[in-house]
Amino acid sequence: MKPLPRPLLSYYGDDFTGSTDAMEVLSSNGVATLLFLRTPSADEIALAKQTYPAIGIAGISRSKDVAWLDQHLPDVFTRLKQADAAICHYKVCSTFDSSPTIGNIGRAIEIGRGVFGSHTATPLVVGTPALRRYTLFGHLFASVGNMHHRIDRHPTMSRHPVTPMDEADLRLHLARQTALRVGLFDAITQQRPDAAAQLAAELQANDIVLFDVLDDASLARVGKQVWALAEARANDGASSLFCAGSSGLEYALVSHWRTAAMDDVAPTVWSAGPVRQIAVVSGSCSPVTAAQIEQAETDGFHCLRADPIRLLEQASRTGELQRLGSAALRALQDGASVVIYTARGPGDAALEQVNTYIKTRQLDYADAMAGVGDALGILLRELIADGGLQRVVVAGGDTSGQVMQALNLSALKMRAMLAPGAPLCAGFSAIDHAPTIEIALKGGQVGNRRYFSSVLAGRLLVD
Asked: Is domain 9-259 in CATH 3.30.470.20, yes or no?
């Protein structure tokens, strides 16, 4: 067995749910991970790297403009560089939704390459079979139910309210965001006898190289290839190999690390027991979350609709928070679990109403939704305190980042596996303190119908 170099990997997640997704992949395979919820100090990085082979920072760049990226990402990457990990990963959503103006992945890669002094191409891994995301000949596909959709024909992501995906070829998609040259190491070429020479040529000719990932076999191949690049860079005395992509990168790496017989890298069972009740706040408008809310109601949860317009209006914000808080607290006192939501699926009339409100008042959509998320965070913080809650859920990728900023937590660690991409986590006010809350951050497309009841039970429940 080979000892684990420390740390193996550092990463910045462009949203909070994606950040816990990467933590889950690593932790559930024996790679202990600490996820900071803000940019840590140099002393915190030094302390964390003594214990954790993987260190992450949860961020919100997915919903931010290029000016924000230019202002914040250099400091984030500089701090992660101090971890001196073999690989530093800019972690994005497996649906890759982004645009030249919001969540620009191309610009983030430019910044990362500048900080880490990348003189070779940046590996890009997006396909994530565990989440039913696949890349083939550079095109991204995502599944819904038994149907497999090209991402630009996906029923939700093609109509995303901020960053709709209208191009499935990720090379063309990135070409709108950066002048960096984007190459492809496709699934067929990966299996050719001269694959190593072909990869070397792609790396030499491009600034970014996208690796196709279709199944577990391709994951293992890609993990081996990327890790070899990291080892070569380390042998040259250079800083971390800078990579980009989804948690497909973590899946690929742990697949290779298991094959390479590294100490302790093996599937690990994480579980938690039930609690009496939980509270859920949801800013997600996906059909998956809508089905989960419907099932929670069937399972006995008390479901409350929040009015996003009243949460946006300064004159009505306090009153709406008081209404929701009082009703939720009564339900909790009666022994029920609670779901507070702003919409039930993409066809909810509330979405059209809030869109009209935003356009009429000439508000920025992302800023307005951040205001709603902030209000949900204040509400959840008060419910935790007044209701004595031990466990909570936040649904929605952007919403999770906004809510977590209101909870004043410093870091998360893995607590239990409930669904791929949405683990139950233990939250800490400081990394050397005991956890204060258990929390699950769930992206809109993640989890089965009984996900909220699974969080309550502390184990996966089938539909």
From this structure: no
179 by Cβ neighbours in 10 Å (0-12 / 13-18 / 19+) ranks as: exposed
Burial 293-311 (b: 16+ CB within 10 A, else e): bebbeeeebbbbebbbbbb
Residue 3 to residues 7, 53, 81, 181, 264: CA-CA distances in angstroms? 11, 11, 22, 36, 8
Query: Residue 380's pLDDT band (boundaries 50, 70, 90)?
Result: very high
The maximal CA–CA distance of the chain, rounded, in angstroms, is 68
Q: With bands split at pLDDT 50, 70 and 90, how would you rate the model's confidence at 261? A: low
* Residue of higher predicted confidence among 234 and 13: 13
Q: What is the pTM of this model?
A: 0.89
Instruction: Using the predicted structure, report yes or no on whether residue 269 has a pLDDT greater than 80.
Output: no
Closest CA to 413 of 399, 422, 425: 425
CATH, domain 279-457, list 3.40.50.880, 3.10.129.10, 3.40.980.20, 3.30.70.1290: 3.40.980.20
Taking all residues of the chain, what is their mean pLDDT, rounded to a whole number? 93
At 1, is the pLDDT very low, low, confident or very high (cuts 50, 70, 90)? very low
Coil, strand, or helix at residue 408?
Answer: coil
Residue spans of beta strands (DSSP E) within 213-313: 241-245, 279-282, 302-305
Handedness of CA 60, 62, 66, 70 (dihedral sign): positive
Q: Please tell me what DSSP assigns to residue 97.
A: -
Strands of the 139-144 sheet, one edge to the other: 133-136, 139-144, 147-150
